[in-house]
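Q: What does the predicted 3D structure of Ribosomal RNA large subunit methyltransferase G look like?
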Amino acid sequence: MPIFSSAFSQLDLIRQPEQPNDPLQAFDAADEYLLRQVAADGLNADSRVLVLNDGFGALAASLAGQARVTSSGDSFLAALALQKNLARNALAADAVTFVPASETPAGPFDLVLIRVPKTLALLEEQLIRLHGRLAPGARVIAGAMVKHLPRAAGDLLETYVGPVQASLAEKKARLLFATPVDKSAPRSPYPSRYRVEQPALELLNHANLFCREGLDIGTRAFLPHLPQHLGAARVADLGCGNGILAIASALDNPQAHYLLVDESFMAVQSAQANWRAALGERDAEFRAADGLAGQPADSLDVVLCNPPFHQQQVVGDFLAWRMFQQARHALRKGGELWIVGNRHLGYHAKLKRLFRGVEQVAANPKFVVLKATK
């Protein structure tokens, strides 16, 4: 893999999850551009730096030991990548403080570096939380590849921080410089809520949730076909989002035991709130994690999954395939993986490579619901 070079360090970086012969890098030209700018502006060892949405730790690891660095984002995999990349480059684990996006980093910060996220609602919430956490004279610089930089990102910076100036593009990357000005404390529109008719629920959704404003059509296709009569089964909702699949299943299966897991900290935060609202103090486990990695073999009876088809800006089925493999490992013999997926993704054929039986439970013109038996 290529070395990530900046004025601050030379780093050997890996992505998460690791894939054999991965053609993708753990950094891009926007990371390089941001660090060139920081070097040009100068950085003191006692400066407090906040890095937001650092994909795989390239920014935070580069600045580790150069300043007092806090990194914050909504991806467990990004946090894991940062941890591994610090160790991989012989940097102290405590050289960077990581704060999940479900929490608010403590300021004040002298410099804020932002990788513009795919979900602009997440950026908006992060900018709202910066209020009162910027030191006098603080610099706020956002960066992205030009193809992933919508005009709305600059509008949000101007609304919540101050006047914005855009850089020239370099290697198809661009920076946005926001000059902080005094503003009244903003009121966050997050979390948002929407209602579901069957089962009758109001669901809370923090800023970075997929389909935050309403139930996604894949889940809507899945809900009427969730497995029944589970008894005291051990059930995982893999990639749980706001928890709707587990909650709907739990309402029909009062003796079953549930694990809700997602790599988004805000998803797990939302799922926990929704579970409590619907099911009170009924016991369940909530986990921000790399899917079912680390889940003991033969420890689950049923896995429910509406798998993602992208990681950040990268589209593909590698995350879904990995989730299927994790589910197979965690399920007991005879255990079942239930999924919903777009017809064109061909999950039926993929599951047959891992499971002894694959059955189509339901279908509509766009989606299929499949049951795979170990």
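A (community wiki): The structure tokens above were generated from the sequence. The chain has a mean pLDDT of 94. The chain is about 25% helix and 30% strand.
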